[in-house]
Amino acid sequence: MRGLDHHRIAAFVVGLLMCALSTSSFAQGLVSRYVEGEHYQAIEAPVATPDDDRIHVVEFFLYSCPHCYHLEPEVEAWREQLGDDVAFSRVPVLFGNGGQKYARLYYAAQRLGVLDEVHADIFRAIHEQGRRLLSQSDMRAFMVDHGVDGKRFDAAFDSDAVREKVAAAGEMMRAFNVTATPSLGVAGQYWISGRSAGSNEAMFDVADYLIRRQREE
Length: 217
Prior knowledge:
9 helices
């Protein structure tokens, strides 16, 4: 009887060890399921981020990009669930159809304090209403429709401050080696594209993984 009890105890201990090993393997699988160089890229020279103890995430986008337009609601939903320790921002890319001018439109709206009100409407104007907004006069008319004085818009659009913002956007693009939109930069160190992640929607999962890693570090 005692021998049987010893066998049962030994079997129980072995079972616990196997369970622990299985759990450990599963955890390691979760940790390593996104692979550098495959699902995301580590950039060569990390980009300086504000010293505010927050993890900075950047969306690189283009107003004329249909993929950016279709993903925008999901970007907003994901942005809403990011923790207080994560800072989200957007950078308009300068390549593609109208990239330079769209970047100036974005930063002019930001300078005028109306970006949150017009951002989604710019997408809709281009992709739903057929208003390409490729000229400054078309952009001015759009902004006037949204309650912005035309002269104030022209002043902002042509300002040195907006030109400096556009130049900084170009530097950020080059630092992250951005070649596609939409895409994400995380913590000044990693770049994620829809192609590397597997889909545009999957970029959020990869970004969440990298954000968790930053928190642990």
